[in-house]
Request: fold
Amino acid sequence: MGYQFHILDVFTDQPFGGNQLAVVEQADDLDEGKMQAIAKEFGFSETVFLQTSENTLASAKLRIFTPAREISFVGHPTIGVAVLLGAQKNAHHEAPADALIMLEEQIGLVRCIVSMEKESVSYAEFDAPCLPSKLNDVPEADLVADALGLGIMDIGFENHKICAVTAGNQFIFVPLRNMTIVRQAEPDLKYWMPAFEKYGPVGVYVYCRGGIQSHAGFHARMFAPSLGVIEDAATGSAAVGFANVIKDYEVENEAMFETYIEQGFELGRPSLIKLETEFEQHNLRAVRVGGHALRVAKGELF
Reply:
């Protein structure tokens, strides 16, 4: 029996932008080895396999694989699957309606809201399944600079400093002086392992203030060689962690903060991620990540 699959572009409303995602349906009988092999075949940063959930609240159970290994939670597969299932829910409705989609991921249940905006393109947002928290141990700036092919003076702007944050996945966040420096950053694998191996991050997220798009608050790139992803076009789980960067360096007494993060421009796949944060006495109370997605292809695995 063949397996139906869909390809979506996520965190974009334009075909062939954003982050590519493959979604394989009715994958209950696929074992871990076959799922890993299929993910490697697609070669996208993530491939999702939809299985039947035993949780009656969930629309599906997600198994998420990079080309190198399984991962417990990722943002752009969450958005992409929510949009796909929302479109399937609306397939027989004359007027598109918003849809509540609950997804079971290894991290737990993830609540998503899908807004059907126009044919083939929808907007979805999810509530972070766990709030980010800052870790005490971070790599030395000179090691980080070497691993990114940069100078130590390129790191940091205003009050922003290198930090490590976990929110289901762990990231090292590296502020860079300006966009020119961000665009120059490239992983140097000779120095990568000495800089980051003992911290076990999913990835290293470099960012600066501003963006190519006028409404972008930050411009970012994310590198994850250990996952088989040299660079990711859009990283929703890192945006969840970035909420802690916002808390530490951007807000004082605000109850809410909203910004847009652009990513993927260096790969020729522009992406835009909306990040909403809520605070209570300067502590994070809620984090939401949103973006557009559209289906661009479907087919069958034999």
